[in-house]
Structure to design on (1454 residues):
């Protein structure tokens, strides 16, 4: 069987730094190939080279056994090689339909055939079970919907080789199922598929063969059937990561750190009340779109909200994030790209932006900033090819680590973490969980919003489940099961707010 | 509740759409109350005809701004093209005689010069990758200088016989609608159609919204950008064809500040200065608002003429208050 | 009442000193005449370019039904056809300062004499530097007016042995002429006199000379009769030995004559040329108007 | 390999940094070759002193543009403040007498007026959420009108005695360096320090780069924006304090087109028009480039003065060619 697309001894440097040291991968038609590895291992770079977005510094790209040099992504696309980017590649101020057909508009005579495009966009999205209106502007739709639009856009392109860079990072279980259905369909049609994910169970579920990368080199290649999840993880990280979630070392404190009563965020959350104890890790579960993000944004003053908030027993009024921060409460956004980091600026500037005051004594103490960056790099294992790199050029996972480091620099007593491990490799996940536990052990209180049930179950002392802007119920650590949470999230089982 | 459902939450009148229209309606009302002749056919024809210059240019500017660009040179460019057109016509007069062939030669000059001027701006901005603000500030100075130099510091005037011949291009019309109004309307309609119904309009918006995404989506970003400038240059040429018959002369003070007026009209009309979204009909409304302000100031006494600029400024700001963006959330 | 007549006044906006003075006089005249002639209404519009001035005139006809137009054309050529249209509609037309490019349109022409302004300046320069000398000159905003003045000046100094070292545009603006003069002073080690051609520019030039502490320059000749400069001439300031008039008040004369023509049967049509006069310490007092802003 | 080891970076000459400096050096060389007096102390003092007005304003403009804003009103604002300062000083003359207390009252007027004018722009832009282009186009017209009205179309002149007293503020100096140069240098140094080393500069760049990220990072976006406008207003006030002593007068032609010059200087200096990155020293270089072009054109013969603007335009474009962005990749 000849490979449809193949990389031979591909190297790639950015400036002085080489990030790929000779990669060989072959994609066969009708097969799903997994590319896994740590954050910054070079997966996205490899995929961009395959699809013409980047040129290899040396080595060959072969299509149907013939060496090709794609001048650009258009040339690759014309050959049927399509990439779904890890970071959204959509024009914010255009609509869903305009984005799907961007660059390949359907025309009737000199004019756009809008009706046909709308119908086809609708059909594509329906195939993905995505109900976002085709006229909505990208800026106004949710992250999961954006991902589905990306996928629809790729499907519209009639790919022979479909390369997907972490498509499931922002999707829910249901949407992942839909996507996998489509992948199966394409596979049956003989499309070669390359797939990346940090969720190894997904790799086991849909992939046939796999390549494992570490530090810009291939460390293992073979059939997925030959690997257990733990074996994959160990090959990626170079150590055993089977015990992902640490055990609770210090008991939850008794004091109430945060009391929320009747918090309403118009249009998103309605009359929400809960308590957060000192040293507690509170999980906030729910389906995507249940309003968890908006609720917490309302809590920290990023959105208009009404309700009563008490911190450490005192009534407080929070109108902007800086008010919350002054009270020791910080929120870490789920959207690192457009809300979390300044992509064109360096790591140092991003790290200290949130609490620049602490580094300023008349003037900014750059030396102290550099020290903080050195500490953050060590503590969160941020891997960057150079210290002065623009944050937009970091790998996705390393951006996420930097974002966590940025919030933690403010040393909040109450920290709300929205999707903390989105796009993070399994080794680093373990480190982040340990870090969260260490925070709790030090008496700080944490709210973790996560769409991964396992994460809530593994991490939280107690979980609240949200649906349609309301708290549907509370699950204690002892009886936390995936089924219990899902039933609440889907509204299949009503339950009175428990101990809170 | 899925986000899809959330988006369909009831229809509210969108101020960003209604805003400019409301402002225009308010101005018409004020004008009508101040002076009985305001709504007379004569006055309306005057106002619309003279809006045509800025209007035609502003339609092109809408595309440039939508695709994330800017052009400060249009006023000087118009002056230069007008001067060139007059020079060419005067030079050809002995050969072609004062007739329509000469007029057509003049028009061709204007269109060709506009196309070239647009190409130069576009080339420097796209291929040479220089900031549009700087390129067009530079060419603004260059064209202004050139027209002063061509006119030797004075005025370039069209031969008088020829002037009488082409006067109808501005002053006459079809069915009582003057040519500038007709041309402006045609340009606006074409512009609106291209913006909304042609691939080019979409591509311009995509380039202005995020040029990287556009590039990754097989849009030839440089070509789109270049085309917007060429398109604007051609429209400047067309505006000049309307302008020369009106005054029959060009000098260093021709077209001064047209660029600011055109940009202001575009923004008053709801196009985003940072690019990514453009609205041609809004631009037309913006142009009308600006022309009406001038007209209304001429209808009334009692205000020191020194303060005209202040009143204009206040009205421009008020017109835009109506359509400001929603407070950012989330 | 029925026989109320409307006079439209269209002038360039106050973008430099002389135009400012002219605006002032126009407004004063309008206010005064509205008192004197209750049966007259005035419409005053100022324009920043020729196109805008044509708009103003169109508006006056379409919405204000003017019976007479007093116009100081921004430029002659572009205003000719529109003013002709006003005249053809039967309204009275008074043209001020700059003639139209077709003769016989206006009923009354109150003319300034730009060539004469240049000539008088040049003649003074030739008299003051009988043995010739090196001068620099500042020009106004590039316009036909400026060209006429400079041509008149150059013709008058021809053969007098006066050498014009350099000529740049000071745009009838104090700041610009200050800058230009500073650079002239750096460039030329010896300058005998300066023709600033306008009093605003003369003020900038004098400031530059004073700041540089240069003693070689004998005098600066401005023009247009700004009251501060007339006062300095009157008081025998050696640096400002003379001035050449170009009175902005000519607009007031024109408006007044038009008002008279419209309200009486007195014959006011024809041409009134307001010549440029040399002002010297001897006659300066006659040209000093303490109330004018210019 | 530990990540720390990976982190050094090699130094390459960066054209975006060197570009403006090279252009400046080229101009100085050309000037020196064309005219022997170019490098004389007198000429250098002249050029630097008169750069000070635009320079001081451009430093403020750097912050406004860095934070994603724009201010078209600075030229008119300067004229208005100058007029106001003169009026206040003339009015207080009988009370305070022609002495330093009066001069100080005048300066206080300028600073207060500048602060208020900046606050008005900033308020309309941030709290009222109106596009900066429109707000400042509006206030540009308003201030220009107001100064014309205050001056009754003519010129507002400072009392003669007072003028003699404050003349030294422009013409004298310390150790042979004139006050405008000293003030400009101080403003530039403070600006550079604030931009690079103070939290405010960081915040301004963050707001200009992505205001949503800034808001999520506890930055008070509106306050930062407002502050940039107020800061600019104060600097306009300071520039006016230098300006009035020079000729002791203000009129409707004061400060015309200063806004374009200031913005051009900022962009020539390498600050990005779309915000997110600013460089005060670059702005200073930009201002010097613009002043030198004028100076060199005045010092040389042979070119028709009508073409000065064209040469200026060409040089501005050339200066920026040196520092265009690398072609985007990946
Ligand atoms: N444009 C660029 N300039 C400089 N360095 C870059 C650039 N793009 C990628 N890199 C570097 O190349 C390395 C590999 O990045 P890549 O995005 O391929 O990682 P990845 O395996 O996809 O990681 P993740 O799982 O976090 O997405 C990283 O160290 C990254 O910082
Ligand atoms: N209509 C909308 N307009 C703007 N942004 C939206 C809209 N709907 C969702 N988003 C954004 O998309 C993201 C997804 O949040 P969503 O409201 O769907 O709920 P959630 O419960 O927080 O789910 P999750 O955190 O798992 O994504 C948020 O950042 C939200 O701000
Ligand atoms: Mg990646
Ligand atoms: Mg969320």
């Amino acid at each position: 069987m000849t490979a449809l697309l193949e990389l031979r001894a591909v190297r790639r440097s950015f400036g002085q730094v080489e990030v790929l040291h000779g990669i060989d991968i072959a994609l066969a038609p009708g097969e799903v190939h997994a590319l896994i590895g740590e954050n910054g291992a070079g997966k996205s770079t490899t995929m961009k080279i395959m699809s013409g977005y980047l040129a290899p510094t040396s080595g060959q790209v072969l299509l149907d056994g013939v060496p090709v040099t794609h001048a650009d992504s258009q040339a690759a696309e014309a050959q049927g090689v399509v990439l779904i980017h890890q970071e959204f590649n959509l024009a914010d101020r255009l609509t869903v339909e305009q984005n799907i057909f961007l660059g390949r508009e359907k025309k009737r005579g000199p004019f756009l055939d809008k009706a046909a495009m709308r119908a086809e966009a609708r059909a594509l999205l329906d195939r993905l079970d995505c109900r976002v209106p085709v006229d909505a502007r990208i800026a106004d739709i949710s992250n999961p919907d954006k991902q589905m639009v990306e996928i629809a856009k790729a499907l519209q392109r009639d790919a022979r080789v479909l390369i997907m860079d972490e498509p499931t990072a922002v999707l829910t279980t249901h949407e992942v199922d839909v996507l996998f259905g489509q992948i199966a369909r394409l596979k049956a049609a003989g499309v070669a598929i390359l797939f990346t994910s940090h969720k190894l169970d997904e790799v086991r579920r849909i992939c046939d063969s796999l390549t494992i990368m570490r530090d810009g080199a291939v460390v293992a290649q073979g059939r997925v059937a030959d690997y257990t999840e733990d074996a994959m993880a160990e090959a990626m990280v170079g150590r055993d990561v089977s015990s992902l979630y640490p055990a609770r070392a210090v008991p939850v404190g008794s004091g109430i750190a945060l009391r929320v009563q009747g918090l309403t965020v118009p249009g998103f959350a309605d009359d929400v009340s809960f308590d957060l104890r000192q040293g507690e890790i509170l999980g906030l579960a729910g389906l995507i779109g249940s309003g968890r993000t908006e609720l917490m944004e309302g809590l920290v003053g990023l959105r208009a909200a009404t309700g009563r908030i008490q911190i450490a027993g005192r009534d407080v009024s929070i109108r902007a994030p800086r008010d919350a921060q002054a009270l020791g409460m910080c929120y870490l956004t789920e959207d690192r790209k457009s809300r979390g980091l300044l992509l064109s600026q360096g790591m140092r500037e991003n790290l200290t932006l949130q609490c620049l005051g602490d580094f300023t004594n008349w003037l900014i103490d750059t030396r102290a900033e550099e020290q903080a960056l050195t500490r953050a790099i060590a503590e969160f294992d941020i891997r960057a090819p150079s210290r002065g790199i623009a944050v937009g050029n970091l790998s996705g996972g390393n951006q996420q680590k930097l974002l966590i480091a940025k919030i933690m620099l403010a040393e909040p007593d109450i920290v709300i973490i929205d999707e903390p491990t989105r796009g993070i490799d399994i080794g680093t996940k373990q480190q982040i969980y340990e870090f969260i536990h260490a925070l709790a052990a030090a008496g700080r209180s944490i709210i973790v919003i996560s769409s991964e049930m396992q994460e809530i179950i593994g991490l939280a002392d107690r979980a609240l489940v949200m649906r349609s802007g309301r708290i549907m119920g509370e699950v204690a650590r002892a009886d936390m099961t995936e089924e219990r949470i899902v039933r609440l999230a889907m509204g299949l089982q009503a339950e009175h707010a428990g101990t809170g | 509740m899925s986000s899809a459902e959330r988006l369909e939450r009831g229809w509210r009148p969108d101020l960003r759409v209604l805003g400019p229209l409301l402002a225009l309606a308010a101005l018409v009302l004020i004008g009508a109350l101040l002076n009985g002749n305001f709504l007379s056919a004569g006055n309306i024809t005057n106002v619309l005809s003279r809006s045509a210059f800025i209007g035609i240019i502003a339609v092109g500017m809408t595309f440039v701004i939508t695709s994330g660009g800017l052009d400060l040179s249009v006023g000087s460019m118009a002056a230069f093209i007008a001067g060139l057109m007059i020079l060419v016509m005067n030079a050809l007069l002995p050969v072609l005689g004062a007739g329509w062939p000469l007029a057509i030669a003049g028009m061709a000059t204007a269109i060709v010069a506009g196309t070239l001027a647009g190409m130069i701006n576009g080339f420097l901005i796209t291929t040479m990758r220089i900031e549009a603000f700087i390129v067009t500030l530079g060419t603004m100075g260059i064209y202004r200088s050139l027209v002063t130099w061509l006119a030797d510091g004075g005025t370039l005037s069209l031969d008088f016989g020829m002037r009488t011949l082409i006067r109808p291009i501005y002053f006459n019309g079809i069915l009582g609608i003057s040519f500038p109004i007709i041309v402006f309307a045609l340009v606006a309609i074409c512009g609106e159609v291209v913006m909304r119904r042609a691939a080019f309009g979409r591509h311009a918006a995509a380039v202005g919204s995020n040029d990287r995404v556009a590039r990754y989506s097989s849009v030839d970003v440089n070509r789109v950008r270049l085309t917007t400038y060429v398109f604007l240059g051609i429209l400047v040429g067309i505006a000049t064809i309307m302008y020369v018959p009106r005054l029959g002369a060009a000098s260093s003070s021709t077209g001064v500040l047209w660029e600011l007026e055109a940009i202001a009209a575009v923004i008053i009309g709801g196009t985003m200065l940072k690019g990514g979204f453009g609205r041609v009909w809004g631009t037309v409304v913006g142009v009308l608002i600006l022309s009406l302000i001038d007209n209304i100031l001429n209808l009334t006494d009692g205000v020191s003429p020194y303060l005209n600029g202040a009143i204009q400024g206040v009205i421009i700001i008020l017109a835009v208050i109506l359509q400001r963006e929603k407070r950012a959330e989330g | 009442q029925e026989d109320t007549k409307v006079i439209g006044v269209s002038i360039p906006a106050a973008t430099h000193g002389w135009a400012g003075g002219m605006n002032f006089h126009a407004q004063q005249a309008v206010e005064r005449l509205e008192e004197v002639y209750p049966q007259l209404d005035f419409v005053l519009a100022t324009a920043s370019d020729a196109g805008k001035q044509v708009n103003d005139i169109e508006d006056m006809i379409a919405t204000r039904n003017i019976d007479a137009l007093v116009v100081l054309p921004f430029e002659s050529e572009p205003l000719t056809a529109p003013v002709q249209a006003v005249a053809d509609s039967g309204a009275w037309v008074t043209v001020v300062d700059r003639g139209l490019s077709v003769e016989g349109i206006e009923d009354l022409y109150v003319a300034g004499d730009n060539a004469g302004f240049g000539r008088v300046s040049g003649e003074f320069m030739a008299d003051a530097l009988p043995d010739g000398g090196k001068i620099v000159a500042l020009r106004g905003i590039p316009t036909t007016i400026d060209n006429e003045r400079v041509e008149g000046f150059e013709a008058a100094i021809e053969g007098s042995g006066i050498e014009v070292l350099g000529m740049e545009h000071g745009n009838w603006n104090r700041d610009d002429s200050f800058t230009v003069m500073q650079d002239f002073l750096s460039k030329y080690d010896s300058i005998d006199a300066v023709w600033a051609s306008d009093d605003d520019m003369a003020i900038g030039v004098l400031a530059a000379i004073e700041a540089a502490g240069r003693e070689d320059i004998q005098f600066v000749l401005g023009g247009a009769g700004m009251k501060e400069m007339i006062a300095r001439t009157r008081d025998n300031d050696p640096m400002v030995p003379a001035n050449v008039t170009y009175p902005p008040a000519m607009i007031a004369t024109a408006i007044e004559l038009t008002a008279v023509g419209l309200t009486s049967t007195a014959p006011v049509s024809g041409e009134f040329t307001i010549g440029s006069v040399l002002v010297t310490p001897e006659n300066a007092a006659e040209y000093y108007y303490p109330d004018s802003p210019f």
